[in-house]
Design goal:
Radius of gyration: 29 Å
Structural class: mainly alpha
Strand order of the largest sheet: 1-3-2
Strand content: 5-15%
Distance between the termini: 66 Å
Number of strands: 3
Number of helices: 12
Shape: globular
Largest sheet: 3 strands, antiparallel
Order of helices and strands: HHHHHHHHHHEHEEH
């Protein structure tokens, strides 16, 4: 006799509803652990950072911890307290709605820091900075409006009444990340100096920006696509769980990579054969470790004071805007 499966009696597919929430929540828990580790590393290395930046990083960790608590409440509410209650599962719990506001706030804070980089690297371009700020504020405003209006909804099906706001919210996140990544990469490429180490560092920064910006943009776009295609399940919520955490970790990764990046930006050292010196050999030997006497025993008429001096010089070149970006 086959054992009855209670989940078959539910009026929804457990895999793309509760299963999607579980997978998204587990990934979010991993991201919170990474955020905590990166925050710990930052405070170990941030002795020379301004106090405002330290407070900002601490606030980001508090926001991410609050977000992790909300995610845990969502999972417990749907998976434990109301596992066999279709009516409760069909309605958005308060922690889901607050999660939207926290995500929007986190996004605008992180993107605001990158807008500051756009302002500095672009030579104080009002247009580019205004576009970045406008996109970020659109994301925040839509997120807050969604949170307020969603408290009046009795089921997830009624999200279609505010679907336009959801589309704008996802689209603003995707567009903002893509725009910031393009602008920063463009100005970083323009800041190349011709020196190998400096140019290598620029390429490293560009790869960081592209990688982190691409991850958040892909997550936002997938959330929007799944909501458009399948608005009646929870797959899009699983992607939304991790959006804020990707923003925070991408920013902390750049902060924690500064020490390694500074080492790459050191001056390029080059060795030159400089000149024929007419200083006496004995004096040259005593005073310079870079000089070597050149004489042949058969040349009895060669002067005792002929020597070749080898000098080491350091070529350095820096860009003011580039240096400023390097010390986020």
């Amino acid at each position: 006799m086959a054992t009855p499966n209670p989940t078959t009696e539910l009026p929804f597919d457990v895999n793309n509803t509760l299963g999607a929430l579980l997978v998204g929540g587990l990934i979010a828990a991993v991201f919170w652990g990474v955020t905590s580790a990166q925050t710990f590393v930052y405070f170990q290395r941030s002795a020379n950072d301004r106090i405002s930046l330290k407070i900002f990083v601490a606030f980001l960790w508090v926001l991410d911890t609050l977000d992790a608590c909300l995610t845990s409440h969502i999972l417990y509410y749907y998976l434990i307290l109301n596992f066999m209650n279709p009516v409760a599962i069909a309605a958005p719990v308060w922690s889901v709605l607050i999660h939207v506001a926290i995500t929007s706030l986190t996004d605008v804070l992180i993107r605001g820091m990158f807008a500051r980089r756009v302002w500095q690297l672009s030579g104080h371009s009002v247009v580019l900075t205004a576009i970045t700020t406008a996109i970020s504020l659109t994301d925040l405003i839509c997120g807050l409006i969604i949170t307020v209006k969603a408290f009046k909804l009795s089921s997830f099906v009624q999200l279609n009444t505010i679907s336009t706001l959801l589309y704008i919210n996802f689209a603003a996140g995707f567009t903002g990340d893509l725009f910031v990544a393009i602008v920063l990469c463009w100005y970083l490429f323009k800041s190349k100096t011709g020196f190998q180490r400096t140019d290598t560092l620029v390429k490293t920064l560009v790869s960081y920006i592209i990688t982190t910006g691409l991850l958040t943009a892909v997550d936002a776009s997938l959330g929007m696509i799944f909501y458009i295609v399948m608005p009646n399940n929870f797959i899009f919520i699983a992607f939304y769980f991790n959006l804020a955490k990707m923003y925070i970790n991408s920013y902390l990764a750049l902060l924690n990579a500064r020490e390694a990046l500074r080492e790459k930006s050191e001056g390029v050292v080059s060795i030159h054969l400089s000149r024929l010196s007419e200083r006496p050999f004995d004096t040259d030997f005593a005073t310079s470790a870079h000089s070597r006497s050149v004489r042949t025993p058969s040349d009895k008429h060669a002067p005792d004071h002929l020597a070749i001096a080898v000098e080491t010089t350091v070529d350095q070149k820096s860009d003011a805007n580039y240096q400023d970006f390097r010390v986020l």
